[in-house]
Amino acid sequence: MAGKMSDASSSTIGGAERGESVVYDCRRRKSSCGYCKSGSRGSITHGLWADNLTVDDYQDLLDRGWRRSGCYLYKPEMERTCCPSYTIRLKASDFVPSKDQLRVFRRFQRFLDGELEQDNPVENTEASSASKNCSYVLNGDSHSVEKNSLSFKNKENEEGRFILHLSDQVDDAISLCSEKGDLPRNIQFPRASVKRVSHVKKKLLVQGSKDLVYSCNVAFQLSASIRRAQVGEMKDDNLSSSASNTAETGFVPKIIAEKLVNYLSQIDELSGFSIKACNGHINFYSDKGEASFSSPKDAERATISQETDKARSKDSRMEKKSKCSSQKKRKFEIRLKRSSFDPVEYALYRRYQLHVHNDTPERISEASYRNFLVDTPLNFVPSTGDGTVPPCGFGSFHQQYLIDGKLVAVGVVDILPRCLSSKYLFWDPDYAFLSLGKYSALQEINWVKQNQTYCASLQYYYLGYYIHNCGKMRYKATYRPSELLCPLRYTWVPFDAAKPLLDQKSYVVLSDFSLQNKESVPLQEVPNDMQLKQDDDFLEEPNDSIIDEDEDDEITEAYSYSSDDDLDPESSGLASSEKEDGDVTNILMDIDDSRVRYKDIRQAIPPSGRSYLENLLLRYKRVVGKELSERIVYTLR
């Protein structure tokens, strides 16, 4: 038997030993899907268990569609799984923040400067968790909001949450319209924003509008987005022709609003309101007279907080600045530490899972937390000071976000030779109004930019998986310009080129289509008379901070998958040249603590066992690729 071959499985950076990668093939797994919630075991992945993993090998595995949960590596079998998951990345130096992303950054800074107050804290009890299925009813002349027996002490905050609920319902109606074919599927939908209609605005409207409480102008934005998409498809880029075409196809604000109202009118949760389309606006009328709060003063304050009256909003901001001018500025710091168990982090994770994901206490344990977010197979590589490794080194890290010394968020990341890979983020529910998910993504992108000075190869920010038909994944595409990994040839395709293809079919061989020469038209906001002027006031924005959801529903189940070894051994996501290469002789194996090539032990294996083993090796080679199969140590258990 051949001796040890450590040179074949280890690598170096700038003279620093990286170690070797050793994996066990868990083979194909089927499980229920946390994304489509179909109830069937439609999620199909291939799994590996890594005893050790070099940062080079994990980087290359990422670029073949793999991800990790603790020491478990997994890759979706793209043409078989119910929700194909495409690896998405962004070149940090090319990143252009959107208006919304800039607003998140400015709002956070205003909070640190003492110009914004903290939102009402979430009740600190494991028995209560925020339910997504809210029931809102109109009781007499005031709103009574029930949310799993959680009562909101502040009426302004109560109405703010209700407005967010209405905005979500409009978003759901937009998605449903698209699925039913009433709206095109090849555009990026803007988020709906429902606003309270001020008393001043009502006086300018037609008679009978006194019962009008809320309004939404998203139909104008949808119409503009469709028009821009048509402009991009026209060779002569003639705007007037495009506008005419939009009218001809029925995608004008008035018609779009009527379609959305048709869907919204079927929602039982909005039974306390009459919903009507008026000249492109979606209006919500109280069925029992104008909704008001417990006193005229409360109603006036709610109106001012929404800034529907320019004069009053200006006075409100002046008053707010005056009150905050004497407040002490908050201290903010970010600490990067190597992955390890921290009781304070675990307590924050537990609170996050209870209040944000509605987990039950018995589902959250220290062991599951360690398996998911602490354990790592990555071999740490210290800095070499020669421009090949950043000062923190390569490996798995926890990025702590602290405000006045209090831990408010933790980002779990892997820092690799070519990227920072964002794995998970959990945060304090009391700080949801700061959109910490979005803010942390901006910080991680900025970290990559800063560390390119120390490590030239560090160029990209990986956002995990992107699932096109999953609504909560759409935020990832807003970090532009992003790329998706082709599931067959493992080349990178611009998202703007891939999107029209994914609108038609969930699994697409992206590299088969050459759309790089087609220029995309940037999204812009279309002003109109009902759209409130947007500034930095966090009360006017949804607390949309779901930047961290890509791992949660899928990966926490990784260890309870059931094996389906009787399935067809052919694996997915393989280039034709790899499928035709059935040679497994050069696969590196662990035999009695020795590193040997399969060809060196093949003759020593009985023919009956040889056939079975070669089938396993062939399947393994197809999912990791020829190069990695000859570099990573394959172990048998």
UniProtKB/TrEMBL annotation:
Residues 290-326, 560-585 are annotated as: Disordered. Residues 297-322 have a biased composition (Basic and acidic residues). Pfam families: ATE_C, ATE_N. Its EC number is 2.3.2.8. GO terms for cellular component: cytoplasm. InterPro entries: Acyl_CoA_acyltransferase, Arg-tRNA-P_Trfase_1_euk, N-end_Aminoacyl_Trfase, N-end_Aminoacyl_Trfase_C, N-end_Aminoacyl_Trfase_N. GO terms for molecular function: arginyl-tRNA--protein transferase activity. It catalyses: an N-terminal L-alpha-aminoacyl-[protein] + L-arginyl-tRNA(Arg) = an N-terminal L-arginyl-L-aminoacyl-[protein] + tRNA(Arg) + H(+). The keyword Transferase applies. Keywords: Acyltransferase, Transferase, Ubl conjugation pathway. Residues 31-101 form the N-end aminoacyl transferase N-terminal domain. Residues 345-486 form the N-end rule aminoacyl transferase C-terminal domain. Belongs to the R-transferase family. Involved in the post-translational conjugation of arginine to the N-terminal aspartate or glutamate of a protein. This arginylation is required for degradation of the protein via the ubiquitin pathway. This is Arginyl-tRNA--protein transferase. The gene is LOC111487103.
